[in-house]
Every structure is written in structure tokens, then in C-alpha cells.
Amino acid sequence: MLKRHVLITLQGVTLATTIGLLIWMMFAAARNAQQTSGLQVNFALLVAGLTIGFIVLSIVLLTKWLSRKKSSWLVTVFIGLTLLKLPLLGLFKIAPTSDFWNYHALAAFSAQGLTWKQLFLKGAIGNYVIFPHAINIANFFSLGTAFWGSAFVISQLINIACTLLDLFLIYWLVARWLSRPLGIAAALSFNWIPAYWLYSSLLNGAEPIFLTCLLIAMLALTNMVQPLPTATPNDHWVNFTIALLASFVANMVRPIMIIWLIALVFLGTGVWLHGRGPLPRSSVKGFSLFIVSLAGLMLISSPVYNWLYGFNVAPNRVSTAYSLATGTDPKTDGAYDAALMTTVTHELKVAPVSGRTYTKIAAKMTQQTQRQLDELSKAGRWGPFLSRKMQKFMAEDYGYDWVLYNLGHQRSQQARNHWWLWSRGFWNWLALIYFEILMAVALISSCLGGYLLWRRHDHYLNQYFFYATLLLAGFTISNMFVEVQGRYHIILYLPLIFLGICGWATLKSRAWRVKTVKTASNQRLS
What we know:
The structure is a single chain. The chain is mostly helical. Helices cover 75% and strands 0% of the residues. The chain contains 24 helices and no strands. The radius of gyration is 23 Å and the shape is globular. Its main location: membrane. It is a multi-pass membrane protein.
């Protein structure tokens, strides 16, 4: 009985935290759009509203239609939706800047035969020695450029291919958890996110690779813990290996997988508190071994990178110290600070890549963080600071803006560039409305989850709500400590969709109205 009370308390606190965060996030996204996106109540809003209506209607109708069709139709629709992105590549020529240029240039150099050590000795790596995840991103893109050439369109096609794979992975994952129709709805909801649709089609960001690896890890771990009826004994270790490698690769490009690991620990604790139920003992042992193995790999990631690239990258503590210093900077509201980067650049020029240099950078960043924390505390500015920081984090105009900043300036492109600038209101309204709908649905679903937890402590959906809220709360709260920008909240799309699907499943099951008979199929995570 005590275990059951502890589990209900954990689930209730997580749901309550998520509800509070979602309300804050919705206001922050709207406030940011009002201040920075130049949104007005005009014709662009009308067109965006009609487009949203079409998107929602297409999700509902396609879900109902595909649920009754064979899988071949599903494959055809997913491929067709992905092919809609290809005309963008011809219409808008991208001349990458900032990190996007660095990823592309380093990938091209590597594909041409230069080793990473040679690039380092030539000075091409630059400040990325303290951000090894950026080198990892370029390295992954170099695999594509080595086979198909160094044109920027290759990186664009890689990301588009990742988004196609994501549709299948989300579908398979949710279908394994709940049902085929809900898997279809989840995949279609993800496909139509306007800001991410633009960003993943036209730019070579790391987020598509990260999400694909995370989804592969989630699906493989699900198959390991709850084997398919056709699974063989060897499949357990195949799925274990796939989940472990995919998780490590995801952490290589976005070193935030510690949040997922913590969520898994809490989820595993929830399963233990509830009782193992129908889960095989081998699955429980494999799940525990996975958590320990992934934690071990994360701890030794720096030596792995040193071996992989042939020079000493900075230990994880250096990039963490920099991100904390940036994330607590009241001058930039937790966003990029050129002055801090200048400090890092100066130290690396004085003594490139040495243990003393890395230690000195970490110490300076830690001192800067402490000064900023003292300043925020003494002036009583934590509330306004976190409010502005959340606004930057929830900026849903990242898709339009990053495309705008990276448009090519060829004479032949001028007319299209002018049209892109003119259409700003439409794209940003479209992105904001869809994002607000996602969060509103997740908020309603979380409230349903709270009511379900109160009415039916032992219902199988409580564990799914627990997992989704752990992810949303974990990734949101952790970003309040480190550097933020709009595209960093892309990871939140997954738990938002998972929450919405859990709410839909709750309504369909009528579990919130009458008691249902539990079956082995609905106890997968309970």
C-alpha cells in the first residue's frame, strides 16, 4: 500500500508540474510572438487560420481512412507528405551561416580526405574543441557528403530523410504502446508542425538526426521490454544494442540525453512501485542494464571523442560550465553572449588545447555564473529573468527566421527572397497557432490524466501519462539552467504529442467515466 501511495504521489506531482509549465509555456510563446514576430490581426492571420483548419481536418480524415487501409497505403501517404518538401529546395537557395556553415564546411573538408586531426592543426575546428557535439554533427553529415558530394542539398536531403523515418518511428512507437489509429494520428500531427517543417527541410540542423536517434532508442527499448509475439531470444539483445547505440549517438549531437535517462529511472521506479505485472524478469534486468550502460557511456564520452578525432576535446564539464554561464546571463536573458565566447576564444588562442586551458575556461565560466546568480538574487530579478528566458526558449518563429537569415543572395533569388520577407506574418501565425494548439491539447490531456489518476489509480494509461510528463517537465526545466534559443524546444514536440495521444486514448477508452476490464495488452507499462 505504501508503494502505491508513493507512486500516485509521484505521478500526481509530475502531472501538476506539467500543467503549470504548459500554462507558462503557452503564455511565453504568445508573448514572444507579440514582441518579436511582428504579428498583427490582418489577412495573414485569416489565411493561417484557414490553413490550420485544413491541416487539422487532414489529420482527422487521414487517420480515419488509413486506419482501415493496409500498411502499403500508410507508407505511400508518409512518403508523399515528405516529397512535398522537395520543391522548397528548388525555390529557396540556402547560403548557410553561423553553425550551419560550420557543419557544412567541416563535413565537406572531412569528406575530401582531411582527417579531423589535420583540420584541428589547421585551425578549422576553432572553438568547437569545447563543444564536441558540434564536431559530431559535422562528422555525421560528412558521411553523406563522402558518398554523394559536398553540395549543401545533400545535408538538406539527409534531414528530410530523417523526418520521413521519424513518421514511421512515431507511428510504430505509439501503435506498440496504444493502438494503430493513435500511432497514425501522432505521426501526422508531428509531420505538420509548421516551424519544424521549414527548419528540417531547408537547414542542416542537428535536431532531425537527434530526434531520429531518440525515437529509434525508444522503439528498440520498447521492443526489448515488451517483446513482440514473434520475437526470438536473440532479439532481446539486438534491441538492447540498438537502443544503447542510438541513445549514445543522440547524446553525441545533443548532449541532453541525461534527461531521458533520468526519466527512465523514474519510470522504472514507477513500474517497481506498481509491481512488475506481466513483464518478463529478463526485461526488467535488461532495462536496468540499459540504464547503467548508457550512464557509463555518457561518463566516458570525452575519451571516446579523443580517440575518434585524434586530439583532446574539452571534458564535458567545460561545455557545461559555458552553457550555465550563458544560461544565467541577465544581459541576454540566457541566450548567446558574444562577450563570453570572446573569453573562450582568447583562452584558446593563448594556449590551444591543453588541460590547463580547459580548466581555466571552466573556472572562469563558473565564476561568471556565480556572479550572475548573485546579481539576480540580490536584485530580486529571478521572476522577470525566467519569464524572458522562457519566451526566448518558446520562440516558435525559429523556422522562418533561420531560413530568412540563411537565404542566398544571388540575383536570381531576389524575387523569392522578397516574397519570403513579405510572407513573414503568414508563416509565423501558422507556426504559433499550431504550436499553441499542440500545447492546449497537451494541457487538456494532462488535466484528464490528473482526473484519471484520481478516479483509477491502477489504470494502465497512468504510466504513459507519467512518462510523457517526465519528458516534458525534464526537458523544459533543464533548459531554464542553460543557454536557450527557439530551436532548442524542438525536443518538446515529442512529449507534447505523446500527451495529446494519451488524452485521446483516455477519451476513447471512457476510463474516466466507467471502470474498464484490464487485459494483458493494456498493462504494458503497468
